[in-house]
């Protein structure tokens, strides 16, 4: 995707967010029961910020139009989308699901092992190499998880999930 | 002289075996974090906060400062050997460091980088211990009006100076940060804003947000890109310790870059990378051999490294005296100071008069450790650079989870970290700077409460916002910064400059 196109899409999103913030600030409770000063209402700054974001979004929209003609800059160049998707699945799966449902040691050991396996697998060409990758991943995952638990829980007295 | 004698006393008080042990391990860890591409100084400091919960205040701050100094310095290792800056701060270092490494002079390049970092930090420390108390005294004159403008100034300048093109993306990042700060209970009437769940009533924590933006987003970026290949893998590393004459030759460059780096550090939210680029560009402009820059210029290398290291003490000046961070890492340090019961801001010289000297002493210990490691452990850092991302990144993300959870022992913070990480990755890919976002989160409350308090005090009168002396200065700078975005202002200033130059020549 071209950067200018991405900028145009985000400009629309930011404009909507700005207007939502402006409306949110305007409709926010003005605490009449507490008889506060009318200029100290809680919605004042959100209103200003919403208006400013909407204004910046309009500027971004204009700028995107100008830039499309002058530079063909592309978005997300120089990396692997597959590696990115795998990273997101593994990290979000671990942080948002596994840590909450499994004991921390097991969640961490599984996560590290899976991460290493996924990203080292393609480098292993034959059965023996794959066996080495599996052994290394499982071993490192278990040792690292144990080390992290010991370091934080016992040495630094930090409570773990 | 009082400042220097206070610094000496603080240094003596800190030189206990336990403190030196903390310096030793945290500096080593900091250099390793900085050396590894994909791990930044801000991420290192944010993750390290977790380890300091059970420490006493001074030890905790010492560990965090060592991590900060070490990581900024460590970035030069991968910049020189891999042509990949370990941290964004070392981007300018790679321009001349890598060509030197390819020419078989990696050892000399790393030695000069070490000398530059050491001298840059020392210049910054000197300025910090001299200037910070004066600034804190001036800050006592700040009322609500000035604090409001200070917050606006911080977010605006950071948004403007951290982007390479038009600043609109920097401004948007700053406004987004300020919007995040609007979530939760506000400061004047304790009214809860934009909080769909009880978990958000207290607002969004700075540490989970920063660990997401600088931790998970970095992990994603590192895995998305390919790992670099060592340029000087077979380098026989010539001498590492630079001769006195070699460094003395660049004394003017070192002093100038140190001062530039410190000044850049003082500007809110403008971090080490800008410090390095500003020093590098100035050194090139004033050099007798500008054609060598980018081809392996030792002067360019020392300018970049001095510049980025001097930002560290520089960024602590506004952080300690105004509670406005000079860099993203300094923002984490402010959060850590609050956790450990120290309230940075104008009252610091009254509540903790020795604290600035203690910070200076901590920085001196960090510099000593950094220099020793830099000279003696070059080969170890080359080995560290060989660690595959598949091993490293899951460990980093595990630390991100532990760090955010440990703060308040709730999973909600981990979810916040993940959301900020995903959003941060997308925004970074779209060239939105992260420093204004972070600055917005940290300064949002200051801006909000001081604006409304000022309006209440003046009963809606807007004049004091522009007529009070310090406010007027802030307004002038802010208006000037905004006007500089327009072509007609730049043309007008260029015309004046040309006229002055002509008159000088005549």
From TrEMBL, chain A:
First and last residue of the signal peptide: none
Domain DUF1468: 9-161
UniProt keyword terms in alphabetical order: Membrane, Transmembrane, Transmembrane helix
Pfam families on file: TctB
Stored InterPro entries: DUF1468
Transmembrane domains' residue ranges: 9-28, 40-62, 74-97, 103-124, 131-152
Name by which UniProt lists this protein: Tripartite tricarboxylate transporter TctB family protein
Organism: Roseisalinus antarcticus
Organism ancestry: Bacteria, Pseudomonadati, Pseudomonadota, Alphaproteobacteria, Rhodobacterales
From TrEMBL, chain B:
Residues of the DUF112 domain: 21-439
Transmembrane segments: 20-47, 59-76, 109-135, 147-164, 170-192, 204-224, 316-339, 360-382, 388-407, 414-430, 470-493
Keywords annotated in UniProt: Membrane, Transmembrane, Transmembrane helix
Protein name listed in UniProt: Tripartite tricarboxylate transporter TctA family protein
Organism: Roseisalinus antarcticus
Taxonomic path: Bacteria, Pseudomonadati, Pseudomonadota, Alphaproteobacteria, Rhodobacterales
């Amino acid at each position: 995707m071209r950067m200018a196109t991405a900028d145009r899409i985000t400009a629309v999103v930011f404009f909507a967010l700005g207007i939502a913030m402006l409306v949110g600030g305007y409709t926010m409770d003005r605490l009449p029961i507490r008889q506060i000063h009318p200029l100290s209402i809680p919605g004042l700054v959100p209103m200003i910020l919403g208006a400013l974001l909407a204004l910046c979004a309009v500027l971004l929209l204009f700028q995107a139009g100008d830039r499309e003609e002058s530079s063909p800059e592309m978005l997300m160049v120089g990396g692997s989308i597959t590696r990115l998707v795998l990273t997101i699945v593994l990290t979000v799966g671990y942080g948002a699901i596994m840590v909450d449902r499994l004991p921390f040691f097991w969640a961490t050991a599984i996560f590290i092992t899976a991460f290493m396996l996924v990203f080292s697998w393609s480098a292993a060409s034959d059965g023996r190499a794959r066996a080495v990758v599996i052994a290394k991943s499982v071993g490192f995952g278990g040792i690292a998880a144990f080390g992290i638990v010991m370091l934080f829980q016992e040495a630094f007295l930090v409570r773990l999930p | 002289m009082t400042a220097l004698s206070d610094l000496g006393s603080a240094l003596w008080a800190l030189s206990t075996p336990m403190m030196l042990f903390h310096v030793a391990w945290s500096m080593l860890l900091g250099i390793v974090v900085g050396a590894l591409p994909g791990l930044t100084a801000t991420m290192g400091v944010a993750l390290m906060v977790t380890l300091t919960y059970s420490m006493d205040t001074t030890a905790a701050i010492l560990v965090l400062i060592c991590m900060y100094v070490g990581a900024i310095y460590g970035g030069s290792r991968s910049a020189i050997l891999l042509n990949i800056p370990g941290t964004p701060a070392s981007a300018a270092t790679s321009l001349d460091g890598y060509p030197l490494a390819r020419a078989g002079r990696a050892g000399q390049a790393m030695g000069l980088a070490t000398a530059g970092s050491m001298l840059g930090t020392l210049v910054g420390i000197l300025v910090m211990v001299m200037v910070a108390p004066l600034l804190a005294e001036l800050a006592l004159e700040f009322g609500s009006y000035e604090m409001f403008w200070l917050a606006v100034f911080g977010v605006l300048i950071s948004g403007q100076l951290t982007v390479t093109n038009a600043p609109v993306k920097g401004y948007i990042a700053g406004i987004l940060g300020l919007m995040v700060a609007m979530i939760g209970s506000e400061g004047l009437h304790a009214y809860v804003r934009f909080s769909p769940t009880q978990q958000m009533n207290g607002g969004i924590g700075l540490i989970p947000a920063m660990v997401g933006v600088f931790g998970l987003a970095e992990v994603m970026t590192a895995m998305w890109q390919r790992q670099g290949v060592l340029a000087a893998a077979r380098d026989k590393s010539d001498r590492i310790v630079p001769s006195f004459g070699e460094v003395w030759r660049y004394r003017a460059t070192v002093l100038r870059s140190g001062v530039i780096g410190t000044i850049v550090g003082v500007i809110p939210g403008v971090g080490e990378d800008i410090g390095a680029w500003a020093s590098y560009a100035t050194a090139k402009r004033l050099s007798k051999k500008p054609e060598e820059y980018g081809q392996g210029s030792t002067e360019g290398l020392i300018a970049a490294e001095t510049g980025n290291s001097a930002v560290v003490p520089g960024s602590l000046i506004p952080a300690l005296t105004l509670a406005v961070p000079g860099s993203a890492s300094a923002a984490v340090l402010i959060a850590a100071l609050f956790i450990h019961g120290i309230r940075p801001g104008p009252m610091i010289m009254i509540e903790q008069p020795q604290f600035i000297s203690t910070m200076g002493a901590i920085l001196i210990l960090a510099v000593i450790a950094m220099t020793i490691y830099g000279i003696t452990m070059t080969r170890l850092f080359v080995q560290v650079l060989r660690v595959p991302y598949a091993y490293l990144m899951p460990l980093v993300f595990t630390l991100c989870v532990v760090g955010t959870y440990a703060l308040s022992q709730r999973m909600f913070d981990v979810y916040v970290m993940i959301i900020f990480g995903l959003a941060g990755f997308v925004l970074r890919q779209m060239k939105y700077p992260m420093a204004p976002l972070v600055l917005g989160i940290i300064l949002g409350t200051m801006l909000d409460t001081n604006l409304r308090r000022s309006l209440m005090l003046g009963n809606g009168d807007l004049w004091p916002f522009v007529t009070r002396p310090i406010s007027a200065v802030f307004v002038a700078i802010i208006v000037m910064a905004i006007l500089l975005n327009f072509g007609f202002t730049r043309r007008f200033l260029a015309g004046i400059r040309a006229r002055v130059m002509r008159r000088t020549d005549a």
